[in-house]
Design a protein that fits this description.
It is built from twelve helices and two strands. With 286 residues, it is mainly alpha-helical. The protein has a single domain, classed as ABC transporter involved in vitamin B12 uptake, BtuC (Orthogonal Bundle), CATH 1.10.3470.
Amino acid sequence: MSAALSIAFHGVAYAMVLYLISVGLSVTMGLMGFVNLAHGVFAAAGGYVMTRLMNGHGVPFPLAVAAAFVVVGAASMVVERLLYRRLYGADELSQVLMSVGLIFMSVAGAKFLWGPLAQPMTPPDYLSGQIDLGFRAFPAYRSFLIVAGAVLVTLLWLGLERTRFGARIRAAVDNRRMAQSIGINTTLLFTWTFALGSGLAALGGALGAEILAIDPGYALEHLIYFLIVVAVGGLGSIRGPFFAALLVGVTDTGFKYLLPEFGAFFIYALTLGLLLWRPQGLFGRA
């Protein structure tokens, strides 16, 4: 029982990080039809912004996290305008080559600027230590991750399901040409959606730096997990990646805890089985 509780707790904390990073990729791929393998670059950038502000300039944790979201979101609008927009409608190979090239450029740039080692992430004092719930103590920072992740998931769902901006995104995902015909500026919508997705990735990278260490190879090392969450959850879906992230986070944590010698074998096998059963993902359209 103790092992099961520990696996569930740490798995859910991990899942929240995976979801925040991956949901933007799901929406942008579903909306733009762009194979953006470089999505993890924005998560890594968020982690670097936060850790450098905290470690190098003494910026408080909340402000550093907010700055990561804003700075990376704003920078992604420039990247989308200069690079991504030129390849909308291009073949998948061109998109893959461009995004993979961006990954390797980010790896080299991060290594040149900050060195090859992982950036230290020390939670503030009020998020350090343990939280004693009587029957068991839990790490304070990972408890914060679960609560913060749940709040952000709820806000994201409300924002995309209950606002006009969210309705425009859903309309463009469902039928881009019809959305354009009723006056939706899909070019501007693409830019803002890309910025939102990249900002969420940066938020996930910053908040999750204690779980997924920020180093130059971050975007390449964790790429497969981001793609698994998107593929299993379904492109263009908001709730799909959430349930997929929970499944991946808890399952991966559990198998690595119980059978560490197999590494990630079971999560790959599970992904293969799920996609053979539902190629469009759990919440994707047939």
